[in-house]
């Protein structure tokens, strides 16, 4: 029987520039809808008052930890499958997909079993008291019961991306986030569940998304990978291959959260409570600008992975550099937009009388902080390329260097030793990121050069 070649696989094995565009656009759309959902979720819950908002906020670091672990595993699956598709190893791709799903099942069960009994202590240890903790415990229990579903969604999505099926990966993301936006007010207000209703809405939308992914993978079976237990061949090598990308990817996402914690502290040090209000508001807007880069990065991992599996380093280099060029041009436009419309954007966060005090500082931040987005593609696409070729540890080193060492380090130095105050923090983040981008890109170019020499591809 001949190899089943899907449209996604044809894209992955075809023109690398077209592949980057065709795979990144659906991912950008999916991630944009997810970002809108995050904003909408906060808006719906805020209607219940500060205790409800605090309850969701308390569980947020735990939730982000679960997302980091599961999406890291999804990236590991995506990379392992893409490389085997490039090598025309259909059996290997099937086996990598089955290993990924078994890992997802184990991780999901472990998260539920270990976290459910101690979630109360974790939330109390964060220093919150009273009603907010009670609400947070109720809220988090619902989502922890659904940990398996959360992990399965991320890994299923990673399998689809790995075989070049970005459209279905996008449908899954849009469906989940869109359903959540609609269900939130129904569960919170119409059914009167309050803040726990937000957790039920999230869980239900995740279950519906899971059913679609399961239908595509197990029932319709029109994906490139065939997932059946009879094809499962336990392999330490496959396991190592997935985890070598998956674990560093999870840690890299956790590193970003740690960096945020320190940047918040530096903003408070430089500008008090108003300083952190300015920083978090400006950062939210800036993070919207990072969505195109994230979409492009997930495409870069799949396309460079397939090219590496094919041992075609010229193709890998074309995809890597083209993704950087495209993301760089998009970010130039995004940054220009934010800078020009900074006063209008600032109004979204300062429309109340009490928030007016931060307006000038916020406009200043919106005209400085987003500049770092312009060079971010050089570092992030290098990280994505390292993930593609199965060298996840290099991607992790680059992320730690960019976020913790350079961004936090430069922000601290500028805030404390220049007399610039808060503007010094923004300048530090921008400069730290720029240095990290140059270092990352140089490392990426050197690694591609080494691969060309190793594979005799000039």
Automatic annotation (TrEMBL):
NCBIfam families named among the record's database cross-references: matE
One Gene Ontology term of the molecular function aspect: antiporter activity
Protein name, as recorded: MATE family efflux transporter
Organism domain of life: Archaea
Annotated compartments: Cell membrane
Native species: Thermococcus pacificus
The organism's taxonomic lineage, starting at the top: Archaea, Methanobacteriati, Methanobacteriota, Thermococci, Thermococcales
Bilayer topology: Multi-pass membrane protein
Keyword Transferase: no
Keyword Hydrolase: no
Listed GO CC annotations: plasma membrane
UniProt signal peptide: none
Swiss-Prot/TrEMBL keywords: Cell membrane, Membrane, Transmembrane, Transmembrane helix, Transport
CDD domains: MATE_MJ0709_like
Transmembrane segments: 20-40, 52-75, 96-119, 139-160, 172-192, 198-218, 283-308, 320-349, 369-389, 396-414, 420-443
């Amino acid at each position: 029987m001949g190899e089943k070649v899907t449209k996604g696989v044809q894209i992955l094995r075809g023109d690398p520039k077209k592949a980057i565009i065709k795979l990144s656009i659906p991912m950008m759309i999916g991630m944009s809808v997810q970002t809108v959902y995050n904003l909408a979720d906060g808006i719906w819950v805020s209607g219940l008052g500060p205790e409800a908002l605090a309850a969701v906020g308390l569980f947020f670091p735990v939730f982000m930890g679960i997302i980091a672990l599961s999406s890291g595993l999804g990236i590991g699956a995506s990379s392992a499958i893409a490389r085997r598709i490039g090598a025309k190893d259909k059996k290997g791709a099937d086996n990598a997909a089955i290993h990924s799903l078994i890992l997802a099942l184990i991780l999901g069960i472990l998260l539920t079993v270990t976290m459910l009994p101690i979630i109360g202590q974790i939330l109390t240890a964060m220093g919150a008291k009273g009603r907010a903790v009670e609400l947070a415990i109720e809220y988090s229990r619902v989502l922890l019961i659904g940990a398996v579903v959360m992990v399965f969604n991320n890994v299923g999505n990673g399998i689809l991306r790995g075989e070049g099926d970005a459209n279905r990966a996008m449908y899954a993301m849009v469906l989940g986030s869109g359903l959540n936006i609609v269900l939130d007010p129904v569960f919170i207000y119409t059914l009167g569940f309050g803040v726990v209703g937000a957790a039920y809405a999230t869980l239900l939308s995740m279950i519906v998304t899971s059913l679609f992914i399961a239908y595509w993978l197990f029932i319709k079976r029109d994906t490139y990978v065939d997932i059946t237990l009879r094809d499962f061949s336990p392999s330490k090598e496959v396991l190592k291959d997935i985890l070598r990308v998956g674990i560093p990817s999870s840690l890299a996402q956790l590193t970003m959260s740690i960096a945020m914690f320190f940047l918040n502290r530096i903003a408070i040090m430089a500008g008090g409570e108003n300083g952190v209000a300015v920083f978090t508001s400006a950062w939210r807007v800036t993070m919207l600008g990072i969505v195109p880069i994230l979409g492009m990065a997930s495409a870069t991992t799949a396309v460079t992975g397939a090219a590496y599996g094919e041992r075609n380093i010229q193709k890998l280099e074309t995809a890597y550099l083209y993704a950087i060029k495209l993301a760089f041009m998009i970010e130039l436009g995004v940054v220009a937009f934010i800078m020009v419309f900074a006063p209008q954007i600032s109004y979204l966060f300062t429309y109340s009388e009490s928030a007016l005090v931060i307006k000038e500082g916020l406009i200043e931040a919106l005209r400085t902080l987003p500049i770092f987005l312009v060079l971010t593609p050089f570092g992030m696409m290098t990280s994505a390329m390292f993930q593609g070729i199965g060298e996840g540890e290099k991607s992790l080193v680059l992320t730690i260097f960019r976020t913790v060492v350079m961004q936090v380090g430069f922000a601290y130095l500028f805030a404390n030793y220049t007399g610039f105050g808060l503007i010094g923090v923004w300048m530090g983040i921008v400069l730290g990121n720029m240095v990290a981008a140059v270092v990352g890109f140089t490392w990426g170019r050197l690694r591609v050069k080494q691969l060309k020499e190793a594979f005799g591809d000039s």
